[in-house]
């Protein structure tokens, strides 16, 4: 169901951002206890991390730009540069946002990402690849196909891009360590996605076994949230953030985006699950 996937994408990225922020705080304070759920941050200031809040504000901003996709993508990158939106995160995360919320057309979005080399510099191909992965996932494709580089053959990927699909055996799940670049980070997110069975299991692997987990967690959050859907995220986790007004604003900016409604309408999404029907993030 398309609405479950769209809400999953939103909540998946929000929850991953929060949890990786908790993990980062724990690492900085030396309290390296295993994190098992958001309740582990009860004595910390549970805030949205470095990425989701600017993404929500960004989406709200570009909703009002009356221009074509090319201009919107330019506006996104310029806005990031002007006010340091990107932080430690890679622009491929935002490209997926553009596809999900504004283009609803992967071919068009990926074309402009590659054409605008002056905007994305050398990041175009990997941005295009991640956008394609999310686009495929939204359209109810199986995990095997999502993780198969053949599914993206029309993108004419470089060997470096294809290398993200070189996923090792499950034996290495607890020894991922630190990623040196975006290719390693995507590979780690795909690795965890392949070898875990639900959103929570994978996210806990991200935040407990990867050094500096923010980008990997957010990549995984987008992918797994979309694949498993909103209904796979525990209600107890959602309740924690429903009562936080600051987070509430962020989530509403994302979910209430007119483009989300457009995507759902295009795919004739219907609410068929009680949990989804009762989804109301107003504090």
What is the average per-residue confidence, as pLDDT, rounded to a whole number?
71
**CATH A-level architecture:** Orthogonal Bundle
Fill in the CATH topology: ADP-ribosylglycohydrolase fold
Percent in helix = 55-70%
Q: Compute the number of structural domains.
A: 1
The H-level CATH homologous superfamily, spelled out, is ADP-ribosylation/Crystallin J1
- Number of contiguous helices: 16
Distance between the termini: 26 Å
The CATH top-level class label: Mainly Alpha
| H-E string | HHHHHHHHHHHHHHHH
> Can you tell me the overall shape?
globular
Q: Main β-sheet, in a few words?
A: none
What gyration radius follows from the Cα positions, in whole Å?
A: 18 Å
Query: What's the β-strand tally?
Result: 0
Strand content: under 5%
Quaternary structure state of the chains depicted: single chain
Computed structural class:
mainly alpha
Low-confidence stretches: 82-88, 266-272
What secondary-structure arrangement, pairings included, does this model have?
Layout: H1 2-29, H2 52-62, H3 69-83, H4 92-103, H5 106-115, H6 117-120, H7 124-138, H8 143-146, H9 159-162, H10 182-195, H11 199-209, H12 214-228, H13 235-242, H14 245-255, H15 258-266, H16 274-277
Describe this structure in words.
- This protein has helices at residues 2-29, 52-62, 69-83, 92-103, 106-115, 117-120, 124-138, 143-146, 159-162, 182-195, 199-209, 214-228, 235-242, 245-255, 258-266, 274-277.
- It is mainly alpha-helical and 283 residues long.
- The chain has one domain: ADP-ribosylglycohydrolase fold (Orthogonal Bundle).
- It holds the Pfam family ADP_ribosyl_GH.
